[in-house]
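Supplementary Note 3. Input sequence used for the single-chain structure prediction.
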Amino acid sequence: MSNYEIELEEPGAQQNMESRNRNDVFRRTNKTSTQQTMNKSNSKKTSELLRRRDAPLETRTDLTASATTDITATMNAILADVFALYVKTKNFHWHMSGPHFRDYHLLLDEHADQLFAMTDPIAERVRKIGGLTLRSIGQISRSQRVTDNDAEYVEPLDMLAELADDNRTLVARLREAHNVCDEHRDVATASLIEVWIDETERRAWFLFEATRRGN
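The predicted structure, written as discrete structure tokens, is reproduced below.
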């Protein structure tokens, strides 16, 4: 091969080498970019897993964090009141006396069963929206707004009148809770509250009528 021919071939070979070098640089850059994207994705997944591990009781919900906070606080206060009113109703049921013992005793037992039936749906509703609910008698005691009655003896009609007042107060607090749910568009909790308002108004009605004296 002549020197002239060699000189003609060298520029093409150099161009090919430069092209291969550019391709190598592109592949390395692309590989690095892909690896960085994967690392970011894996880092995000790891971070999410760690967060969920640190908060294992956090339920996923489409409600906002502020909605969960507000509704949880409201419903836990209602739950504490319902537990306190349940125990108070059972207290008067156990210690009822007098000529109308049987009627009042059975009435309060029915009311207590109705109150206790509310507790599980309230607590479960709090958990469904991502909140935490009551854990102990101590927490109920710290949260309740219903006043206990530890008197050794209470007149039967006074028992019924006190429970009637407590149920009417519970109705008012349920309406307030309904407003909180409406504000955050939590229709599921609100629909449960509507049933409980009706039941509580019925208890207040029965207790009021049982305490009425003849004209």
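Confidence is low (pLDDT under 50) at residues 2-9. The longest helix spans residues 3-54.
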